Amino acid sequence: MKTKKDKILEKLRKLMNLKESATALGNEGEANAAAAGITRLLMEYNLTENDIPEQEKLENPIVSEEIPFKISTNGRWYSDLISVVCEYNMCRSLIISKFNNGRMKRSEFEIIGRKKNVEVVLYLISFLSHQFIAIGKRNYEEYKHDCIWKYGKSPKSLIIYLKSFLYGCVIGLS
Asked: I need a labelling partner for 126 at 20 to 30 A (CA). Which of 35, 58, 117, 133 fits?
């Protein structure tokens, strides 16, 4: 007779296999859904990576990937986005600083976690950041129209509008 923990670990294995096969077939949506299911199960049953059987640890080792640190006029939203996506996908993010012209400057983020989780994090950061910016720019025209016609005031600049919009997107995501 299987214990509750064995049943949960079996569900985790099935989700991991589903994610692997979906990734191999190029079905990113299904792979992301499986990864979300894995995270949800681990959190729901208060399991940690130590509870994952050893074979799965060998197949999904801890890795780190570096991505550029984006300096933008739109505030801290990008680093907040990375923090939120890492938190909910069982990864950690570090900011790496390097010397530049005699001063320490932030140069990149290092994402650390299980290989499959890091892959999901990198995909989500890329996808969400591009989508949020595109939607914000598209919505800016409607915002300008509403400011003038509905409220009789001049609209904020695109940069100020995007700063608020992007920050709101990250807050909503978390």
From this structure: 58
Three-point CA angle 109, 111, 114, nearest 5°: 175
**pLDDT of 1:** 65
In what order do the strands lie in the sheet containing 92-100? 62-68, 103-114, 92-100
Q: Which residue has the tokens 């509008």?
A: 161
Q: What is the CA radius of gyration of the chain?
A: 20
pLDDT of 132 > 90? The answer is yes
Task: Find all residues with CB under 8 Å of 67, minimum gap 6, and list them.
Answer: 82, 108, 109, 111, 122, 125
- To 10 degrees, the CA torsion angle through 164, 131, 22, 90? -20
What pLDDT score does 169 carry? 92
